[in-house]
Amino acid sequence: MAKITFNTHDNNTHTIDIQNGLSVMEGAVQNDIPGIDADCGGGMACATCHVYVKDEWLNKLPAKEDGEEDMLDMAFEPKNNSRLSCQLIVSDELDGLEVNIPSKQA
Amino acid sequence: MNKTDVLIIGAGPTGLFCAHQLGIIGLSCEIVDNLDKAGGQCIELYPDKPIYDIPAVPECTGEELTNNLLQQIKPFNVKFHLNERVEEIKKVENRWNVKTSGGVEFDVAAIVIAGGVGSFEPRKFSVKECDKYEGNSLLYSIKDKTIFKDKTISIFGGGDSALDWAIELSNTSKVNLIHRRDGFSGAESSVQKVKQLHEQGKLNLFTKYQMESVVGDKKIDSVKIKHDEGETKEIKSDYVLGFFGLIMQLGPILDWGLNINKKTVEVNTESFETNISSIFAIGDICSYPGKLKLILSGFHEGALAARGCFKYAKPNEKLRFEFTTTSKAAQERLGIKK
Questions:
Q1: Same domain, B131 and B219
Q2: Terminal Cα distance for chain B, rounded
Q3: By CB distance 3.0 to 4.6 Å, which of B9, B83, B185, B231 could disulfide with A70?
Q4: Do B116 and B8 share a structural domain?
Q5: Of the partner residues A37, A45, A78, the one whose CB lies closest to the CB of residue B45
Q6: CB-nearest partner of B126 from A46, A73, A76
Q7: Is the CB of B126 less than 8 angstroms away from the CB of A77?
Q8: How confident is the model at residue A18 (pLDDT cuts 50, 70, 90)?
Q9: Of all residues in chain B, what percent are helix, strand and coil, respectively (each to 5)?
Q10: Confidence at residue A45, expressed as pLDDT on a 0 to 100 scale
Q11: Assigned domain for B74 exists
Q12: Cβ contact A43–B183 (<8 Å)
């Protein structure tokens, strides 16, 4: 279980518990966090679960797999701290992770 | 005006199988899809990826599934209207008058929405002023490449479309290719070709840059780009092209008065009819208690929606439940000769 904080573009903060093994995207969708569309359902095929990871977390996250960076090329305003939340699998190590959700996903 | 019993919106697996089910019970249909080919997400998002949960098909790719479904509906000679998006629907007496983006019109008894997560549209630049130039000097697809001859073109993106067009247009235009990182997602041979053209001075390559703004009056004059480390450049451009792949959007369906909840259309589970009578919704776009977003669920939904269409298409007839194994009528419709 990890506590994950989502800062939405309207300056609201949502902190939720997500069980280990789920993706950060799945946790967000199950908890109705606004701004995570996840159109393709976690297939790394759409870039609509794009988040910006707080800098201090960037190096603590598992590295990007092939394809994630390619998909991020398609995301709305990608930055160096961009990740696809469907590729971030929750574990105890992710407890306290904080991400910002972009103003829109497309 | 195309007159048919049912219009299916969306040529993904669910829409294709619904066409089969309509054909079996003797109803005609036509299919509209915004993509240039049938298959929907199966063909656009994962043509080569395996699917393992189609009943009685242990493994197949998105492309194989699509081809098999097209094969299965062949006997019904279903007419496809590709590269068309349904824009307007209007009730005329007991039928629907439907218009597409390309001006195609239909007169149908019922509509089946099998639109998945929406129609595929090009992803756009996030810079606001871009809207102003869209269609004249800022484009997301190329219809007539001759307009670029001897012009300066700035292409954004790192996938195959961006690379292929950069290579092709570099023959007749001055091309700037701008991408947000050093790596590209397009084919390695194209990446090498682009780098070679860059070294030969036949193309300008700007990596780790993204669009900051566009400058111009009625048409674009130049585009400002910004490096990861903050440095900006202004490059003269007659045309700006963006190739960021496709995104799915519900589009005009939102305006038809359907009960929509979280980008999905509410339906009953008896016939998959929506809150508007004679409009049905099946596949990923429909929602009901227990909905599973699986292709197999879409097949079931399509079979029931097809039967739901029957009373609107043939109000004076009664639908008989029959098996294809034994039904003479169904076998005739399938063109089976004994």
A1: yes
A2: 37
A3: B185
A4: yes
A5: A45
A6: A76
A7: yes
A8: very high
A9: 30, 30, 40
A10: 85
A11: yes
A12: no
Are B66 and B73 within 8 A, CB to CB?
A: no
CA-CA distance, B138 to B241, in Å (whole number)? 6
Report the CATH number that the domain containing residue B177 is assigned in CATH.
3.50.50.60
A78 and B180 within 8 Å at the Cβ level: the answer is: yes
Number of cross-chain residue pairs from A and B with Cβ atoms under 8 Å apart:
48
B-chain residues near A49 (CB < 8 A): none
Could you tell me which residues are beta bridge partners of residue B33?
B82
The average confidence (pLDDT) of chain B is 95
Structural domains of chain A, with CATH: 2-100 (3.10.20.30)
Residues B177 and B219 in one domain: yes
Q: What is the pLDDT of residues B5-53, one digit of tens each?
A: 999 999 999 999 999 999 999 999 999 999 999 999 999 888 888 999 9
Establish how many alpha carbons lie within 13 A of residue B31's alpha carbon, considering only the half-sphere containing its beta carbon: 30
Residue B112 and residue B173 in one domain: no
**Which of B223, B244, B265 is where one domain is finished?**
B244
**B175, part of any domain:** yes
User: A74 vs B245: CB contact, 8 Å cut-off?
Assistant: yes
Would you tell me how many other CB atoms lie within 10 Å of the CB of residue B234?
Answer: 13
Between CA B193 and CA B187 the distance in angstroms is 10
Q: Is residue B278 domain-resident?
A: yes
ipTM of this complex prediction, to 2 decimal places: 0.83
Q: CA of A99, closest CA in chain B: separation in Å?
A: 20
Do B113 and B12 fall within a single domain? yes
Q: Which of B186, B218, B244 is the last residue of a domain?
A: B244
Quote the number of domains for chain B: 2
Structural domain range at position B169: 124-244
Residue B338 inside a domain? The answer is no
| pLDDT value of residue A106 | 73
Residues 190-209 in B contacting A (C-alpha not used; CB under 8 Å): none
DSSP track, B83-119? T--EEEEEEETTEEEEEETT--EEEEEEEEE--TT-E
